[in-house]
Amino acid sequence: MIVTEGMLGVLAGGTLLLCIGIRDDLREIPATAKLGFQIVAAGMVIWSGKLLSVFPHGLVGDTVNVLLTVLWIVGITNAFNFFDGMDGLATGLAIIIAFFMGVVAFQTGQPALGWVAVALIGAGLGFLPYNFKPRAPATIFLGDAGSTFLGFTLACLAVKGNWADGKPIVSLSTPVLIFGILIYDMVHTTVERIYMGKVRTLKEYLEYVGKDHMHHRLERALGSRTDAVLMIFLLSIALGLAGVVLRSARTVDALFLLLQGTIIVVVVSILERRGRGT
Questions:
Q1: What is the tens place of the pLDDT at every residue in 191-219?
Q2: Measuring CA to CA, how many Å separate 69 from each of 76, 104, 159, 182?
Q3: C-alpha distances in angstroms, 158 versus 94, 209, 253?
Q4: Which residue among 27, 46, 85, 275 is least enclosed by CB atoms within 10 Å?
Q5: Tell me, what DSSP letter sits at residue 252?
Q6: What is the pLDDT of residues 127-158, one digit of tens each?
Q7: Contact at 8 Å (CB) between 101 and 113?
Q8: Which ranges of 139-223 would DSSP assign to H, the alpha helix?
Q9: What are the residue boundaries of the structural domains of the chain, listed by start?
Q10: Are 231 and 152 within 8 A, CB to CB?
């Protein structure tokens, strides 16, 4: 059964963000208000009975786990929305991430999550030919409604899943690698904006709009939007493959794969320096 009790929170939260996204596409909603709705949506998922289990059960541990769950869901939702800046990029990433999440879900005996991933892949494949045309402009777009819904749903799949019994490091590393591109871009742009003094308050950060995301930097470095999109797809596939390998890995193997993923993004960061600009 795909629509389990635990998935009702995801459906409710996703529906809320879809409606807010449609409203924002028609008439802009303040960034602070959108953040508030995203936190509410994350709360719906937690209320349905599932959250990240990074720290041991207890008052302090549960509190931190709740905060980390909200941070993960809201962070991935926004990171995914940021990648909806080039034709086909967000849609393609959704397909890739859903594919690897689905593979791991079926491998670990979680068919309900696997079929949700399959549904997202199918929707993405039907949408992509009209959203990504290498030699012509896209004819349809995700908009805030589509990108936030996809980002939220994918983030929730990671929260809902149990990716490695008795191996917390492995279980945590699997989604971190599969979502690695999104995490890298969010961390990179946040640190750079604060360090360069581009934002000084949370309100400024939420409202800041700039061409300093990974796809913008790669476009400047490679000289082509299509090449930048395809490069990000390849990087995401490379990290996703590492995430799949983790299923039967030991803790030390997980740490090595995380190190490998870090090296990959460092190499990309060096490449991006060629296209650095504001």
A1: 888 988 888 888 888 888 888 888 888 88
A2: 11, 20, 7, 16
A3: 13, 28, 20
A4: 27
A5: H
A6: 999 999 877 888 888 989 999 999 999 999 99
A7: yes
A8: 143-160, 168-178, 180-195, 202-207, 214-222
A9: 5-275
A10: no
**CA 7 from centre of chain:** 18
Structure-token pair, residue 20 = 């807010």
- Quick one: tokens of 137? 């402009």
SS3 state of residue 98: helix
Q: What is the number of other CB atoms lying within 10 angstroms of the CB of residue 45?
A: 27
Q: Using an 8 Å Cβ cutoff, are 254 and 246 in contact?
A: yes
Burial of 57 (0-12, 13-18, 19+ CB in 10 A): exposed
175, 243 contact by CB (below 8 A): yes
For residue 152, give Cα distances in angstroms to 4, 16, 276: 18, 11, 30
**Which range, of 7-11, 17-21, 22-26, 235-239, averages the lowest pLDDT?**
7-11
pTM, to two decimals? 0.89
**What separation, in Å, do the N-terminal and C-terminal C-alpha atoms of the chain show?**
49
64 CB contacts (<8 Å, ≥6 apart)? 54, 55
pLDDT at 278: 43
- 99-129 residue pLDDT tens: 999 999 998 888 888 999 999 999 999 999 9
